[in-house]
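ARCHIVE CARD
Drawer: 12
Card no.: 0347
Subject: one protein chain, sequence and derived structure
Cross-reference: see card 0346
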Amino acid sequence: MSEITCKHFKVTGKVQGVSFRAFTQRQARLLNLTGWVRNCSDGSVELLACGTEDALASMEAWLHNGSDWARVDQVFVEKAERENFDGFEIL
């Protein structure tokens, strides 16, 4: 069984008002990740995702492109303390 870890991501660019959170939630669920995604007051989107290293790497790769309407400028990633979530939610 693979170990579960968590990562905090912050995505900048044109990522609000383009369904980025909904697409992120869909992708996270496809990858069996748990956690949350939300808009930030500075126009970025942040998420906390927990799952296997492979799933988190896939999510990070996806975030660099985002949804079809988004324009991703940067993705910041840092390890986070492990938390337990029931699913992946939009906050």
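Annotation on reverse: The beta strands are 5-14, 34-39, 45-51, 71-80, 88-90. The first helix runs from residue 20 to 30.
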